[in-house]
């Protein structure tokens, strides 16, 4: 049985090593995406003009009026002092061609005093330019920058499958790390003085044992983040009832219909304020998102700069039909069924933000550790592969020498 487990661990590890190396290093970086992006691109984050700021809704209106080709799809509803207001945008349809207007950007940074656009960029573009570097790394982390093909997000599926393999391999690795109860201490030890291959082996085996629980959590949450609707929700729903997901529920999801009206952002914010009071949500409406494919608005409730959720289970979100104003779904962290709460905890665990600043530091360290485990695993495999090849060559030489001696 152990021989079969060794073989599985070897091939699972070889198959996923490169993916996990990239995911580990990029994950360590994007734990600080906001801070790093702001340090690299101060002109995209720091407003040029001091003074009384306009409301976010007014700024969005001015942006769309100045450039009718675009539509603001994500809008922070409050401005951090001294910062720009960063909006996500998509092209509208050109009535002449019936195709989207050509835009080479999907994110803008707006001066909140004047309404001037200070910067534009294609968030997630394949580019190592300073302006694009951190969004590029962020998207690389979960999609490998692979494109949609035939309506399928290849990168997200691939990284989700890697997460599943990694999760199974983590269990196998733990079993292999303790060949006997009497020798359990060896599985926690590092032969620092020996160096060389011995230390490489210990970094891989003992390093993995020390942080095995964290690795298992990251592996599980990576599956949840990439294949939630395809894998995780169906499994969890067999164990616990789930609140309908507005993005994957056919009773909620619908394409815009001809003649549909679109409620104003101001009206949606009013509805969000009413709902916040009814649901006893403490944080104010912090961000507004328009999902055109389902003709719905989403509103997140958080203070300025806390769009990721700096601690706990994240931020509340509510969704409204853009035509009727009917509330479609409500997601309040810590509320709902056991299955709901299990799903709510996935991103805070994966990002480390469930523990605040300390959790982000921890998840960065785990990301580096994943990269180290991937490299040491490959080095061990290569050493053993070379040893097997030398052994086979020696055996062939021995057989050849023996055959020659017999013929003589």
UniProtKB/TrEMBL annotation:
Domain of life: Bacteria
Listed InterPro entries: PepSY-ass_TM
Stretches that traverse the bilayer: 12-32, 154-178, 361-382
Pfam family for this entry, one: PepSY_TM
This protein's UniProt keywords: Membrane, Transmembrane, Transmembrane helix
UniProt protein name: Peptidase
Organism placement in taxonomy: Bacteria, Pseudomonadati, Pseudomonadota, Betaproteobacteria, Burkholderiales
